[in-house]
Amino acid sequence: MKRYIVYRLLQGVVLLCLVATIVFFLGRLTGNPVDLMLPEDATPADRMAMIKALGLDGSLFQQFTIFVGNALHGDLGTSIRMRQPAVEAFFSRLPNTLAIIPWALLLAMCVGIPLGVIAALNRGNMIDRAAGTVAVLGIAMPSFWLGILLIYVFSVELGWLPSGRMGGPEHYVLPVITLGAFLVAGFMRLVRSSMLEVMESEFVKLARIKGLSESVVIWKHCLRNALVPVLTLWGVFVGNLITGAIVTETVFAWPGIGRLTYEAVIFRDFPLLQAVIILKAILILSINLVVDILYAYVDPRIRLA
Amino acid sequence: MPWIPICIIAIMVSMALFAPLLAPYSPIDQTLRDKLIPPFWVDGGGIDHVLGTDAFGRDMLSRLIYGARVSLIVAALALTAGGGVGLLIGIVSGYFGGAVDNALMRLVDAAFTFPAILFALLLAVTMGQGLGTLVLAISLLLWASFARVIRGEVLSLKQRDFVALAKVRGCSSARIMLTHILPNVLNTFMVLVTLNIGVVIIAEASLSFLGAGIPPPTPTWGLMVSDGRGRIAEAWWVSLIPGIAITLLVLSVNVFGDWLRDRLDPRLRQL
Question: How far is the C-alpha of B249 from the C-alpha of B229, rounded, in Å?
């Protein structure tokens, strides 16, 4: 187990270094990164000062060591537009995103898992097809459009819910639905196919022979085992939600890290974007790491493989 | 045969191919006195602008027709580039196995863990918006899933007698991969391509929506949805109509892709 954790930790660190290196070199790809980092009305004196401060008059290797050194001290540059350290901006917005992600995940599971089970039990008939249609539609609708459609129906036409910004519980409804919707199809398909597999297995036959009631067989014996692949992909799903939040938070003017990413792109705020990407990478990698370690703890086959 | 999706795809493709002939107006020219005219079935709309106009008085139908071009061109280029790289890596990795395979598959794992959309946004800011950047960004999103599936296929193919025979006859590795393995994974490759068209169209639209796609004034569906976002209360059609076009197209290619997969390669069901 210890070996597995160390291995996965190393893997995460290597990946993170890869991401940081790519971000660093992409910034230098198009000439002097100072042009990306300074506002358009900067004077030549500002330019020189920045070049000195970032060590850009040195070789590429020297620059890279400065970049890594600063990063290790938690300094990922200063946002051009907000004139505050990018790391600070990120962490001040992070709680707002973390406030909707669990709800979106919960919603997607509460809809997707039962749909998957029902589809598997009715394999091939109308109900299965209907569930399949929901899944296909969920994948085909771009989530930025779904968000706007929901705003149009529930805020503009019906006037039931606010169209954006943070606030009381009613402000959470539409963003959570929009963010969760695109995972529903994923959960449903995954649960359906693994349910079909489990329902064929020997221990389910045994449970039936033992005379257990059908609902106990399905919900207790089958579903429990069918959920294993769902748990493995938990880390991936959370990663999807963190990126999905870029679009959702943009549509709903939700002040989280997704909206921050959008602002960095729209205002060409390169230092902010660079910081956001590295910090998101850390976030996603650590979530994946924790999920995998928990999973290996539960299922010994993983850590031995 | 899924006829309805095929018809929708055919309509969208002809829209893209014959845009200059089909569009009643220029998709770019602004006529401010005609701004925000609703579609013909809504009060105030007329037959002049069947789907209405946007905030700059540009004809929605014309923009929609030209927008199909961008979606389909980006899809074609990104699938060729990203799918091609994935195909190559999949074949090389599966055929050679060992350390090469190990290294390439770790790279694939890494690509799966880290969301490509973040790199796409970074590329748009550092390299500037444009067709090339967009295609590169979306290719990054695709190659890993292609590589993983193709590799699996090659692993079983290389155990077959015809590969052993080719080795005995002294064929080089490159020749075996090109003339013996490649033709046998093309079916799978085609299925992967169709299943991913929808993914690419959504990715293109989302990047355009986020201001990292093809820059204005070129009409793209994602950008059109974004344009109408602030006026949803007074002019819903500017945002909602292009979204319907995206959903219809993606739905059609997905249904068609599922059908093609079941016919050509039912083993890919799990995807």
Answer: 21
Give B92-105 pLDDT, tens digit per residue.
998 888 888 888 88
Window 203-232 of B, Cβ < 8 Å to A: 205-206, 209-212, 222, 225-226, 228-229, 232
Give the closest residue to B75 by CA, choosing from B194, B189, B191, B186.
B194
Distance CA(B87)–CA(B139), nearest Å, equals 12
How does pLDDT run across A145-174, given as a tens digit for each residue?
999 999 889 888 887 888 777 777 788 889
Give residue A300's pLDDT.
66
Q: Could you tell me the pTM of the whole model?
A: 0.85
The DSSP string of A203-261 is: HHHHHHHTT--HHHIIIIIIHHHHTHHHHHTHHHHHHHHHHHHHHHHHHTT--SHHHHH
What is the ipTM for the molecules in this complex?
Answer: 0.84
Contact residues, chain A, for B127 at CB < 8 Å: 26, 29-30
Residue to mutate among A23, A144, A191, with most B CBs inside 10 A, is: A144
C-alpha to C-alpha distance for B237 and B40, rounded to whole angstroms = 11
- The nearest alpha carbon in chain B to A277 belongs to B118
- A59 versus B191: the higher-pLDDT residue is B191
Scored b (16 or more CB within 10 A) or e, A60-83 reads eeebbeebeeebeeeebbbbbebe
C-alpha–C-alpha distance, residues A36 and A56, integer Å: 13
Residue A302, pLDDT above cutoff 70? no
Rounded to whole angstroms, the Cα distance separating A240 from A235 reads 9
Q: Are B256 and B2 in contact (CB under 8 A)?
A: yes
User: Would you state the pLDDT for residue B93?
Assistant: 92
Interface contact A261-B124, CB threshold 8 A: no
pLDDT cut 90: percent of chain A above it: 7
Which amino acid appears at position B231 of this protein?
Answer: R
* Residue whose C-alpha is closest to residue A296's, from A241, A288, B270, A109: A288
